[in-house]
Design a protein that fits this description.
The chain contains ten helices and nine strands. A nine-stranded mixed sheet has the order 3-2-1-4-5-6-7-8-9, sandwiched between helices. α1 packs parallel to α10 and α9 packs across α10. The longest helix is centred in the last third of the chain and has 23 residues. 50% of the residues are buried.
Length: 266
C-alpha cells in the first residue's frame, strides 16, 4: 500500500502541488500535468501559467488555484509570486509547455527550490546548463526526459543514465519503450508496461503530474516514479484493446483513478 490517509485529516493535509508551465502555443501541457497531479488524490493544485492561458486553465478544473506570469513567459518580475506560491505547497513540477524565453531565469528559480521538485520538458534545458557546469540539483529532485531529451546530457545508455543521476544528485526517469529509473544510490528500476500509443501529446505531462502528486502524499521519489510509469503504461494497454492507437491523453486520464486505487491502496 503506497497511499494512506488519516481519517481526521482536513483540506490541504493530503498533498498540495504547484505546476509551473505553459506558453502561447503550449497551453495544454501544464493543464495535463495539473490534472495528472489531481487524479492521484491530492487536495489542492496550483497552476502558474502565462496570462494568455488564464481562461483555458481556469476552466480545466474548478479545483485549480491559478496564478499567472506577467507576460507569456517567466521573467524576474514573477519570482516573488512564484516563491509565495511555493511556500504554500508540498511539491512542484516545472517545465511543461514553457517558452524557452523563460530560460534566463529558470536556473535561478530551480536552484533555490527547497521542496520536492519534478523537472520536465523546457526546464530540462536549464538542467543541461547545471550539468555542464558540474553543479547539482536541489535535494529531492526528479528529472523526466524522454530518450531524445536525455541526450541533452549524455548518449543514451543505462550506464549514462546512472552517471547523470549521480552527477546531478537526483532521480532520473528516462521515458521510452522501457522506462528506466535511476537514483544516485545505484538503484535502477525498469518498467515494461505500456505501448507506442503513449507517444501521443500530453502523456508525459500527465506522468510528471502523477509523480509530483504521489510525492506530495509522502511516497518516496523512486517509488513515485515507479508506480506512475507502471500505472500509465497499464492505462495505455487497456485503451489499446478497444481503441488501438487512437487514444489520447484525456482518455488515459479517465481510467487512471481505478488503476491508482488498485495499485496504491491494496
Amino acid at each position: 500500500m503506497y497511499l494512506k490517509r488519516n481519517n481526521n485529516s482536513y483540506k490541504g493535509q493530503n498533498g498540495k502541488v504547484c505546476v509551473i508551465g505553459g506558453s502561447e502555443i503550449y497551453h495544454g501541457a501544464p493543464i495535463y500535468t495539473a490534472l495528472g497531479a489531481e487524479v492521484t488524490g491530492v487536495d489542492l493544485v496550483y497552476p502558474i501559467v502565462p496570462y494568455c492561458n488564464r481562461e483555458v486553465t481556469k476552466h480545466a478544473s474548478y479545483n485549480f488555484i491559478c496564478h499567472y506570469f506577467k507576460l507569456d513567459y517567466i521573467t524576474g518580475l514573477d519570482i516573488v509570486m512564484i516563491n509565495d506560491v511555493l511556500d504554500q505547497v508540498d511539491t512542484v513540477v516545472i517545465g511543461p509547455g514553457l517558452s524557452k524565453k523563460s530560460l534566463p531565469v529558470l536556473k535561478e528559480i530551480i536552484q533555490k527550490i527547497s521542496i520536492p521538485l519534478v523537472i520536465d520538458a523546457t526546464a530540462l534545458y536549464a538542467v543541461k546548463d547545471i550539468y555542464e557546469t558540474d553543479e547539482v540539483l536541489p535535494p529531492n529532485t526528479v528529472i523526466t526526459p524522454h530518450r531524445g531529451e536525455f541526450e541533452l546530457f549524455e548518449r543514451y545508455t543505462k550506464t549514462n543514465i546512472s552517471k547523470v543521476s549521480k552527477t546531478l544528485e537526483c532521480v532520473v526517469l528516462v521515458k521510452g519503450e522501457q522506462d528506466i529509473i535511476s537514483n544516485p544510490e545505484d538503484i535502477m528500476v525498469i518498467n515494461k508496461t505500456g505501448n507506442p500509443g503513449l507517444t501521443v501529446g500530453g502523456t508525459g505531462d500527465l506522468l510528471s503530474g502523477m509523480i509530483s502528486g504521489f510525492i506530495a502524499q509522502n511516497v518516496s521519489l523512486i517509488d513515485a516514479c515507479k508506480i506512475s510509469v507502471e500505472i500509465l503504461g497499464k492505462a495505455g494497454e487497456r485503451l489499446y484493446k478497444t481503441m488501438g492507437y487512437s487514444y489520447q491523453a484525456i482518455d488515459l486520464l479517465k481510467i487512471l483513478p481505478g488503476l491508482i486505487k488498485k495499485t496504491c491502496y491494496t
